[in-house]
Amino acid sequence: MSKLYLGLGTNLGDKEQNLRNAVEKIEEQIGKVISLSAFYVTSPWGFASENSFLNAAAGIETLLSPCAVLERTQAIEHELGRRHKSAGGVYTDRIIDIDLLLYDNMVASLTSPEGNTLNLPHPLMTQRDFVMRPLAEIAPELVHPVLGKTMRELASELKG
C-alpha cells in the first residue's frame, strides 16, 4: 500500500461541494482517504481572477501506481466538469484541480501510457502557500524527499 498526497482546488461554482465531490470520487477510484485538511480560501496564483479559490490537501492510501493515479485524477477532473488543463504556465479559472504532490518518498519524472508527464514531488508545491498550508495541517512531520525539511518547516518558510 502506498501513501500519496493530493492538492485540491476550485474557484468556480459551489466550491465547497466541488471539493467534497472530488474527495468522494478519489475515495471511489483511487484509494482510502486517510486525512483531509480544512478548506482554505486563497487568492488566485499565477493569474488574475475575480474568483477566490478554495483549497485543501488529502492523504490517500492506494494500490495504484503514480501514473495510474495521475490518469484517474485527470479523469475525475473531467467527470466533475473541467474541460481544459493549464498548460505552459498559463492558468485559468477551474471547477476542480487535483495535483499529485507526493507519492511515498518517490523522486521521479514519469511518463504515463497516455503521454502525460508526472514529476514527483510536485515541482511547484513548496512555492505555493495554498498547497503547503493544508499539507502541513495533515502531515506536519512528513519530510520532503528532496529538500529534507518537514511540511511544517516548508510552510512556515512561505509565511516569511
What is this structure, in a nutshell?
The protein has 160 residues and is α+β, with helices and mostly antiparallel strands. Helices cover 29% and strands 27% of the residues. The termini are far apart.
Based on secondary structure, the structural category is alpha+beta
How many domain units? Answer: 1
Helix content: 25-40%
The major sheet is characterized as:
5 strands, antiparallel
Beta-strand content: 25-35%
Shape: globular
Number of helices: 4
Tell me the CATH architecture.
2-Layer Sandwich
Query: What is the name of the CATH superfamily?
Result: 7,8-Dihydro-6-hydroxymethylpterin-pyrophosphokinase HPPK
Q: Order of SSEs, N→C?
A: EHEEEHEEEHH
Mean pLDDT: 92
**How much is the radius of gyration in Å?**
15 Å
Distance between the termini: 36 Å
Number of strands: 7
What's the CATH class, please?
A: Alpha Beta
Which features characterize this protein?
two-stranded antiparallel sheet; five-stranded antiparallel sheet; 160 residues; 29% helix; alpha+beta
Plain-language structure description:
This protein is α+β, with helices and mostly antiparallel strands. It has one domain (2-158): 2-Layer Sandwich (Alpha-Beta Plaits), CATH 3.30.70. The chain has four helices and seven strands, in the order βαβββαβββαα. The strands form two sheets. Strands 1, 2, 3, 4 and 5 form a five-stranded antiparallel β-sheet that branches. A two-stranded antiparallel sheet has the order 6-7. A hairpin with a 5-residue loop joins strand 6 and strand 7 (117-120). Helix 1 (15-29) crosses helix 2 and helix 3 (129-138) packs antiparallel against helix 4. The longest helix has 15 residues, at 15-29. The mean pLDDT is 92.
